[in-house]
Amino acid sequence: MTSSPSSCPDDAARLPFTETPLPGVDPAWSRVVTVASTAPVEPVPGRKRRWHLLDNGQALSAAGRTPQGVVLAVHGNPTWSYLWRDVVRAATETERPWRVVAVDQLDMGFSERTGLFRRLEDRVTDLGDLTREIGLDTAGLPVVTLAHDWGGLISQGWAQEHPEIHAATVMTNTAVHHDDAEPIPSALRLALNKAVHGPVTTGSTAFLDTTLALCDPAPSKAVRKAYKAPYTTRERREGIAHFVADIPAPPEHPSHAAYERIAGRMSAREVPTLLLWGTGDPVFQQRYLEDLMHRAPHADVHRYEGAKHLVPEARDISTAILTWLDERFGGVDPVVESHRDRRARGRAAFVPFFAELEARRNDDTPAVVDMGPVTGTVDGSAPELNIERSVTWAQLSASVDRLAVALLRTGVRPGDRVNLMVPPGSMLTTLIYACLRIGAVIVVADQGLGRKGLTRALKGSSPQWFVGIRKALVGARALGWPGRRIAADSLDPVSKKLLGVEHTVAELMDSVTSVDPAEIPAVDPDAEAAVLFTSGSTGPAKGVVYTHRQMAGMRDTIRDTYGLRAGTGLVAGFAPFALLGPALGAASVTPDMDVTSPKTLTAQALAEATMAIRATAVFASPAAIENVLATADALSPAERDALARVDLMLSAGAPIPEQLLARLQELMPAAELHTPYGMTEALPLTDVSLDVIRAAREDAQRGVDGAGRGVCVGTPVEGAELGVLPLTADGSVSDEIVTTPGVTGEIVARAPHAKDHYDRLWITERESDLTPGWHRTGDVGHFDARERLWYEGRLAHVITMAQGPVSSVAAEHAAQTVPGVGRVAVVGVGPVGSQSAVAVIETVPRAEKPHLAPAELSERVRATVDFATGLPVSAVLVVPEQPTDIRHNSKIDRTALSGWAERALSTGKLSDL
After folding, report:
1. Region label for 908, one of left (φ > 0), alpha (ψ between -120 and 50) or beta (otherwise)
2. Are the CB atoms for 842 and 822 separated by under 8 Å?
3. pTM for the whole thing?
């Protein structure tokens, strides 16, 4: 195990030349080497210089262990080899060890102060002198460079001069090039200012203090002292000043030529590359990551959301690095094998996602209908529908072709990412299918993520193009969202200039008078087609990448499972389903609602949308259904008749209690009510109807093996396979996939329509693919004797009690049956392995502020849960409203609730969430 970044063990190491404790460092790693310098700056070639290293080579040799290779770790400014202590320890203790040589560059750390201004070229030469002296050049072992900050450029310079031994590159928050058209980061501009440079670099520890502050969580006082130990005097900090002054951005800088040469050569050699990036770094920002990805497009990338500059200090990068090294140098990469397996399973004949548009290009019936504000009636007669726009299949097909050609002529290329920030409707539909038609990758990060989440998602996915309505363009301008701008609305010249808009969609459409089919390239079935984002309800929203084949697989699964054939009328009350209508050949309509807030869907808006295209199928989220039922009294007889003609109702996003479905059935008596289980990574995976849910409840009452203890989500859809990895006593999971009735574990799935990978989240992707060929969902559940899957919650929310791990969903649903109780979350508080269960409830009517539940209500909730599930609830807390994700308005943030409940119970203070 690596040491905690902020720990300070009792046996804190001391190097021979410092009295300052160095938490996490084994003194046996410390080594001083005398090296003959050939750097151009040296007035006397061959001058001996003393280097300090942290090197575990002798420890491995003494233990009789042979390293797989060498990690040459190069720090930046103003750190030193201490930055890599956790990597050294982990590489020493792992089953397949690596020798780590973490250097203190000359004039830095505990290496010699030469009194010379060492520039980039000198430092590259210095590193070569060192590796030659300690035998790395001739040891016959692969050398992997590991670098941070300035170390990135220096290590790349070394790598280019040692191609015969350089085997791989690992970089974290660094840069090898800066675009002259962009200003350098403000912190560096300030440090370069002549009035500030000396005082902040040598005259004080300000530059070092500022760097140490760029770490989240903050290092302990002992760790901060360790970083500052080599820099106690002005003379010892001179190297910090030189490093800053050697930033070679301007062309006239003495180091500019060497810097351009190193950056230019990086793309010439394709070696395995891992980029580990803190997204909150104000110095090495997203643009530097994008530059590295451009130079090494094959790189594996993981973005640590929220981490700042000192990523090696704030995150466990050691495990990621050693895992990556094992996979690249120790055998088959299980993630690659998993991709191969998944893709091989989806090799049915490929029919493009947009094929229905071509098949129906002469069809004059409605394809997409945009609804305006609800008008309504008071006399029960049929309302006059407010249809803002209706587009036929022929019009949609022609528009998609014209826009596809226009985008190509504008410069959009296959593989380019295009963020679409346009409300569901005919415009968005045209944009989606035009992009897919030319092989551009649609980035769907909806406003339901919130401003902060949306900014994180867009900057992380780095779209080259941004298409949005005026409001979105204003946001893009203010928040720095990436991409060349195209306006979905018509804009006057002044607005276009202010918002940085190059084109409008109308202008693009008008620019194409005829379409030559040969101008539109054929799509690669296995190329990226879309980046869809998770809801962000269990952490920062993740980008989920689908290929064209997988998108087609999603379409086929939904079509075959629910019989949605060409000619079906579909109401898309859940934004993600808006893009499926044309692919299915179904006429689609989005109700008058705020699509970023599903609970704004009213019964009347749903009825009017249904009437607009005589829809027989409806997609809506659980929160939308709740509000439809809450506003159903306002329906006119004609509107009730329209809903009564619906024969299929689908709801996805979160489990729905049977009682809620039963009320919905009364509103839609002819409809089959289905609540498919799935996720952004694979939707759907199972299907269940209200009839099956009722039968499952009856089976649970009769004691059928495995029935009960959760929400029945039915059986796998066509082409999908599911299993569980059983939970162990500490809440972790075992390795064997089972379908044994009653055995709870993490749900794993595979299907032709499952995602390809997570976008720029190498660690997350690997964790989801630890069972090769299967996607580990992070959900827990079990099967019953009738092969139905029962969902029990999230793996991260399992309560680890003394008697073993317990999932929460069954207890929550039981508590919701108590009169006066609304939504419920049962969370664990206390240390892992001895947690207690606490129920956090909403009440009807709504409470004004958080408080302990009254004794009578608390007892009823606890007794009901205990009777239904056997779970002892230690306390019941009341909140005005559960914290939920924005997109679904239904996924409760149980992690936040757990922390809040623990604080509330320990302090007796029930503050607002």
Report:
1. left
2. yes
3. 0.88
